[in-house]
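Issue: copy button drops trailing tokens. Both records pasted manually instead:
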Amino acid sequence: MRFSRTKPRPAGDTTPAIDPIHENIDAVVAMHAAGERMVDPHQRTVESLTAWLGRPQFFYGILVGVSLWMIVNSLAPLLSLRRIDDPPFFWMQGLLGLIGLLMTTVVLITQNRQGKLAERREQLELQMSLLTEQRTAKIIALLEELRRDMPTVHNRTDHEANALTKTVDPHEVLAILEAKLEETQETDAASEIVTQEMDDAATEAQQAVQQAQEEQFPPR
């Protein structure tokens, strides 16, 4: 006898079935659209400029412009023309320095907002992980309760299941993690001290042996 995994829909029911995948996609798209609506015009202009600067065409344009500038100013005397920028091209260096400063500022402005978005996503992922952990613990607790109430199932104490029914306290986990990291750092520092002391002892022993050899066999 085969059992259907899905509940049969009544005849004549034209209500569209709920698709969790599309719901999640719509939620992500809505969150992204809400974040984009909060961007002011100046930030949007800067990010558009950053996207344009990150294209290969801009890199090729810089190479072509610098090459032409150097070639024209180098060949100007041969063509009976006046040089705009004498070698080593101080005007070009100043212009490139200004462009580099502006590009760095534009990229930093873009990265600042991207960093805030990434931090917001990490907080959302952490909240969802904690919620999933709480739901899992609740499911395990309900299953254990069901197992104890069923007369046909042998009642026994499952310590692992009992441990999984307890939700994890993030503050406690963070405190334990920090304590472990501090303990590891102290252990590494102690290992470095012991290694340094061993190296010093080996150096002193080598010097003592060398000194004894020189006293036993003095140079002629």
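Record 2 (pasted manually too):
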Amino acid sequence: MNTVSLLRPAATNPATRPELTDALRATVDAKAAAALTLLRDAVAEFGHDGELAFANSFGAEDMVLTDLILTHRLPIEIFSLDTGRLPAETYTLIGEVEQRYDTKLKVYFPDASAVENFVRSHGINAFYDSVELRKACCGVRKMEPLRRALAGKKAWITGLRAAQSVTRTGVALREFDQANGLEKLNPLADWSEAEVWAYIRRHDVPYNALHDQFYPSIGCAPCTRAIALGEDVRAGRWWWEDPASKECGLHVRKG
């Protein structure tokens, strides 16, 4: 198993502090306005009483959407999945978000007995042994809680971007999620990484401290590492696997 990259992270991370040129500011303002319109239209279409939910994993993209939803007081339920193996920095950010926006987030946990059975059968770090076991672990810790979180919903919102990885190049602003049987909205589908960070800097949005340590994509602690300049933004997720398999199942499109 390849556990480390031969590349070395640079001393500072320029990705989280893009140069805020006039052109970048204008582009971000326009895209933020478009994303806000999409969110408001979604509320009008799917309802004000919990029928529309935002799946927040507390990555940089999700913090942009969190700020848009909570700053504009949109009636969109925000939920998160706590796998039980998140980095400490993610838990710190959850507390910062609740304090900053004066809100309480809905957090879903995996079924304890299912986690116990998986670990007893396969081992505490079985996800390193094969793609099948890694996906089985994601199934227990992410997929089952997601099904509970989406029960009764008409649509859900994600922070997916088409530029994130080879598995996400076809991401659209809106698509039907066949796996979960409901509409799926991706307001940042056409955003670049620089645009995400420009929004965060301009609006002083809280974010995961690991981003400054070269973690552009953050999941469970044992399945996430820092990347070096020049690596794909998803290179630090399940780095021992082929890039084509790097999804946990939450955003795999069928058909």
